[in-house]
Amino acid sequence: MTVRVKVCGTTSLHDALLSAEAGADALGFIFAPGSKRRVSPEVAREAGLAAGPVVARVGVFLNQGLMDVLRTAEAARVSAVQLHGPVSSLYVREVARYHPVLRVLRPTDLGQPDMLEVLSFPGVTPMLDAPEPGGGVPLDWAALREVFPAGAWLAGGLGPANVVEAIRALRPAGVDAVSRLEQGPGVKSPEQVRAFVQAARGA
Ligand SMILES: O=C(O)c1ccccc1NCC(=O)[C@H](O)[C@H](O)COP(=O)(O)O
């Protein structure tokens, strides 16, 4: 199965076009307060729509109010929503009534019935990520091999140099990265973005 590739932390039209031209399947737009990659819904909307009809536009949220998520997602015209943080399954189910959801889990969540319940909701796809989102720290792929959910995406410290190994270890449906694709906070490195997409495609 072809692995999907998401380039997260897009903060400009320039970087959206860069990732789309590199062949990314999805762009992430971070709306979490306090993120050094936070983008306004207006910029996300302009940049995401410019990437064309086949590139997914993912709004990224961390523990934010339900109405904030729904209003921002609408204003930014995202095509999916990524939810970080200890939000309830009811909350995830409500967001999934309006948008496809990438529900971010940490490895320690995998044993928790209430966290796993959400994965049975229609339109909700799990994404395994490190405890600190956007922190550039890889997960222990070998330790996850037996418990990695079917159809899940993988994030956490991925970049051109390790994405092939990660894909071969866990066979995720998609991969997502930000820290290792930047030349500065919120600014993409063209070389790293191209190399990441190319490496993931060739895995
Ligand atoms: O990157 C951030 O600043 C961020 C802040 C708050 C919530 C989510 C955030 N990033 C979300 C992502 O999907 C990252 O791509 C993912 O955590 C992987 O990051 P990295 O380990 O830096 O590749």
From TrEMBL:
EC numbers for this chain: 5.3.1.24
Metabolic or biological pathway, per its Swiss-Prot or TrEMBL entry: Amino-acid biosynthesis; L-tryptophan biosynthesis; L-tryptophan from chorismate: step 3/5
Catalytic activity: N-(5-phospho-beta-D-ribosyl)anthranilate = 1-(2-carboxyphenylamino)-1-deoxy-D-ribulose 5-phosphate
Keyword Ribosomal protein: no
Keyword Cell inner membrane in record: no
N-(5'phosphoribosyl) anthranilate isomerase (PRAI) domain residues: 5-199
GO process annotations (BP): L-tryptophan biosynthetic process
UniProt entry keywords in alphabetical sequence: Amino-acid biosynthesis, Aromatic amino acid biosynthesis, Isomerase, Tryptophan biosynthesis
Alphabetical list of InterPro entries matching this protein: Aldolase_TIM, PRAI_dom, RibuloseP-bd_barrel, TrpF_fam
Gene3D superfamilies listed in its UniProt record: Aldolase class I
Molecular function as annotated in GO: phosphoribosylanthranilate isomerase activity
Similarity section: Belongs to the TrpF family.
PANTHER family for the chain: N-(5'-PHOSPHORIBOSYL)ANTHRANILATE ISOMERASE
UniProt protein name: N-(5'-phosphoribosyl)anthranilate isomerase
Gene expressing this chain: trpF
